[in-house]
Amino acid sequence: MDVAGKVVLITGAARGIGADTARRLAAKGAKLALIGLEADQLTHVANQCGGKAWEADVTDWEALQTAVNNAVDHYGAIDVVVANAGIAATGFIRSMDPAAFERVIEVNLLGVWRTVRTCLPHLIDSRGYCLVVSSLAAIVHIPGNAAYSAAKAGCEAFADSLRAEVKHLGVDVGVAYFSWISTDMVNSADEHPVFGPLRTNMPGLAGKKYPVSDVGKAVVRAITRRSKAVHVPGWVGALKLLRALTPALVDRQAPKSVPAADREMATNDLSGLVGPGGTAAKKS
Q1: Which of 64-78, 83-97, 230-244, 248-262 has the highest mean pLDDT?
Q2: How far apart are CA 104 and CA 111, in angstroms?
Q3: Distance between CA atoms of 18 and 198, rounded to whole angstroms?
Q4: DSSP string, 36-78
Q5: Would you give the DSSP letter of residue 233?
Q6: Residue 132 lies inside a defined structural domain of this protein
Q7: Distance of CA 167 to the CA centre of its chain
Q8: Residue 17 is inside which H or E element, if any?
Q9: Which of 144, 167, 264, 267 is a good FRET partner for 33, with 20 to 30 A between their CA atoms?
Q10: How far is CA 111 from CA 35, 85, 152, 154, in A?
Q11: What is the pLDDT of residues 143-200, one digit of tens each?
Q12: pLDDT tens track for 205-214
């Protein structure tokens, strides 16, 4: 797919992966329809891209439908959807704020479902491409990350089913798997007194952060190829083939750090949504 002149709708586009991808697509001549919270930040990115921005919470059916309708009214079509909006929360299941846990599921999984369902008629019309942003967390389920892992695993399963359902309609579906990326969300989580050390002390490549630019380039490449999967870094794709072994690896590492972290989380009430996106989602 030559993205020049194509209309690309991106959710969660105010910062991070969504914003970087939008700027790169704009440089290749794509027309950007950006949806998200943080209206001022979202508008700033849209202005950089020569695109249009619509503030909407992806968990709000009415607001999302209005934004999508406005995008179609403005551009005439939707050729590509990047279902990227996502938030994260720190916390262990037994002591985690229930509202924070459920908000992660609502935004990261139900928000993807609502985005795809709302945009799908337009993708069918254009025989377009949909990229659902999952995560390495769909493959490796570490302690302190249950809500995010559950949601992203759900995104992967949802996208796989969707792909089989719409292939005959000319729509291609991809799944994006990213490790730790240097976004405001991950950087904010690293500042957490318990989860931060837990993550940064993960062994080897497991704890490494990668630049947002790596993801932006990979997403643009995936769109042009209408790829079934995109992995950043590349070793995530190899790990996906060995996913049956990952629970044993986590079980082997977790006992070294979990007990103290679990006690501190429970004692000091340290769970909750992280980063600017988490703050915006909580307000919304």
Answers
A1: 64-78
A2: 10
A3: 26
A4: ES-HHHHHHHHHHHT-EEEE--TT-HHHHHHHHHHHHHHHS--
A5: S
A6: yes
A7: 23
A8: helix 16-27
A9: 167
A10: 12, 7, 11, 11
A11: 889 999 999 999 999 999 999 999 999 999 999 999 989 887 887 877 877 777 777 7
A12: 878 889 999 9
**CATH code of residue 21:** 3.40.50.720
226/39 Cα distance (integer angstroms): 30
Total number of domains constituting the chain: 1
Q: Is residue 214 part of a domain?
A: yes
> Among 100, 80, 81, which Cα is nearest to 91's?
100
Cβ atoms of 230 and 177 closer than 8 Å: yes
Radius of gyration of the chain (CA): 18
**In angstroms, what CA-CA distances link 27 with 14, 22, 49?**
17, 9, 8
Q: Is residue 142 part of a domain?
A: yes
> Tokens for 242?
């060995």
For residue 272, give both structure tokens. Answer: 């909750």
- Taking alpha carbons only, the member of 271, 278, 274 closest to residue 95 is 271
Beta partners for residue 178, in sequence order: 232
What DSSP state is assigned to residue 109? Answer: I
Strands 7-11 and 272-273, by their bridges, are unpaired
Domain encompassing residue 217: 7-283
CA distance 34 to 57: 12
Q: Tokens 């083939």 correspond to what residue?
A: 241
Q: Which residues contact 262 (CB under 8 A, 6 or more apart)?
A: 92, 94, 95, 143
Rounded Cα distance between 169 and 99, Å, is 38
**3-state percent helix, strand, coil for the chain, nearest multiple of 5:** 60, 15, 25
Residue 270 in this model has a pLDDT that exceeds 80: no
Find residue 82's DSSP bridge partners: 10, 131
Assigned domain for 86 exists: yes
Q: Report the C-alpha gap between 133 and 159 in whole angstroms.
A: 9
Measure the CA–CA gap between 1 and 221, rounded to whole angstroms: 10
